[in-house]
């Protein structure tokens, strides 16, 4: 990996991945793209190369990759779970159409390829505890349907055309730099913002609902480590189970209360996102990622909470009233 193109770079993951890869590879070796124009003066524009790209436009997609002589493609542009459930046809067209274009560009230009799948690629018939790497995948959401189809398509491009495709099933990602894009696990980000702004949070996910989660620095490390992994060690490719922690709302509340003892939480459950959460695993078995490319996350729940509250307090400034 010497020169990388990233799609959907203004999102929760992309904004932090661009920063990391610009440091690792040099700003001139990261071609950041998104369908949206970044805010004037934002570092994504001022500190490196940015281009507008709608991933459903194959000709422009290929031209940007070709003109910039990239050797690696990280495809992030997609619609997330809750938004995809609201617009299922649009989600199918974007998630599958964009991925097909990305894989074709990778095939034609012989690029190393990474795209994330999700815990959403599992469904209610998947074993919920210690969910194996290879298991039943019958998701009941449009997001999940696109994610499991995407995993299969990436495996197909690897086996049929020899494209070096790699991927992970991300759990809910928690971060303070860029707000999440409309996923089911977003409550675990919102809760930190509300703790600092109001000292209170109404959780849209119900008591007892366990889901896998990971702090963004570990997620970015996972992308970079898997892209740098020795391909001869990879028995799996699309996509590895990864997770750093599994908790339910009461546990994240308790973790925040260790730092902010007066923090309170109630429930105002959203049936749509609760339904999605109920169809997902409680906790993943990540042993294949550990064995095949030494996956080892650094943050557990309490360590993440301390860092999130500290960094968010700085970011929120006067808005942080508690
Ligand atoms: N964030 C998570 O918790 C999480 C968990 C599991 C998997 N994932 C996966 O990781 C990937 C990135 O997620 P994210 O959280 O950064 O998403 P996000 O919603 O924060 O960002 C997606 C970005 O894609 C861009 N985009 C939308 N349509 C586009 C188009 N037609 N062409 C180009 N760009 C377009 C958006 O402008 C946005 O900047 C997705 O595939 C998602 O499914 C994320």
Quick take:
44% of the residues lie in helices and 15% in strands. The protein has 322 residues and is α/β, with parallel strands linked by helices. The strands form four sheets. A six-stranded parallel beta sheet has the order 3-2-1-4-5-7, sandwiched between helices. The chain has a three-stranded parallel beta sheet with strand order 6-8-12. A three-stranded mixed beta sheet has the order 9-11-13.
Characterize the structure shown:
This protein has 322 residues and is α/β, with parallel strands linked by helices. The chain has helices spanning 14-25, 43-46, 58-67, 81-86, 88-109, 142-161, 187-198, 216-228, 249-259, 271-278, 287-293, 301-316; strands at 4-7, 30-34, 49-52, 72-75, 112-114, 117-118, 165-166, 168-170, 172-174, 200-203, 211-215, 240-241, 245-247, 264-267. It folds into two domains: 4-171 and 215-241, NAD(P)-binding Rossmann-like Domain (Rossmann fold, 3-Layer(aba) Sandwich), CATH 3.40.50.720; 172-213 and 245-280 and 298-319, Alpha-Beta Complex (UDP-galactose 4-epimerase, domain 1). It contains twelve helices and 14 strands. Strand 1, helix 1 and strand 2 form a beta-alpha-beta unit. Helix 1 (14-25) crosses helix 8. The N and C termini lie far apart (44 Å).
């Amino acid at each position: 990996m010497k020169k990388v193109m990233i799609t959907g770079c203004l999102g929760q993951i992309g904004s932090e991945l661009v920063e990391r890869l610009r440091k690792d590879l040099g700003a001139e070796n990261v071609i950041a793209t998104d369908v949206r124009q970044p805010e004037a003066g934002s570092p994504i524009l001022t500190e490196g190369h940015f281009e507008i790209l709608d991933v459903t436009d194959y000709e422009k997609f290929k031209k940007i990759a070709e003109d910039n002589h990239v050797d690696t493609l990280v495809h992030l542009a997609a619609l997330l779970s809750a938004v995809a459930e609201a617009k299922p046809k649009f989600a199918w067209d974007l998630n599958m159409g964009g991925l097909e274009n990305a894989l074709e560009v990778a095939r034609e230009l012989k690029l190393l390829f990474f795209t994330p799948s999700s815990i959403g690629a599992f469904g209610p018939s998947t074993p919920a505890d210690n969910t194996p790497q290879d298991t039943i995948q019958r998701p009941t959401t449009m997001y999940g349907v696109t994610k499991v189809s995407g995993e299969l398509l990436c495996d197909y491009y690897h086996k049929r055309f020899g494209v070096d495709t790699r991927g992970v099933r991300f759990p809910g990602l928690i971060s303070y730099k860029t707000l999440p894009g409309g996923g089911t696990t977003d409550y675990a980000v919102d809760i930190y913002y509300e703790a600092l702004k109001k000292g209170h949070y109404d959780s849209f996910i119900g008591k007892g609902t366990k889901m896998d989660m990971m702090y963004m620095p570990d997620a970015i490390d996972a992308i970079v480590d898997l892209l740098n992994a020795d391909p001869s060690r990879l028995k799996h490719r699309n996509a590895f189970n990864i997770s750093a922690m599994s908790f339910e709302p009461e546990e994240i509340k308790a973790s925040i209360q260790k730092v902010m003892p007066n923090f309170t939480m109630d429930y105002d459950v959203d049936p749509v996102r609760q339904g999605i959460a109920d169809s997902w695993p409680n906790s993943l078995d990540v042993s294949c990622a550990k064995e095949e490319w030494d996956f080892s996350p650094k943050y557990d729940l309490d360590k993440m909470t301390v860092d999130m509250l500290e960094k968010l307090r700085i970011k929120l400034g006067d808005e942080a009233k508690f």
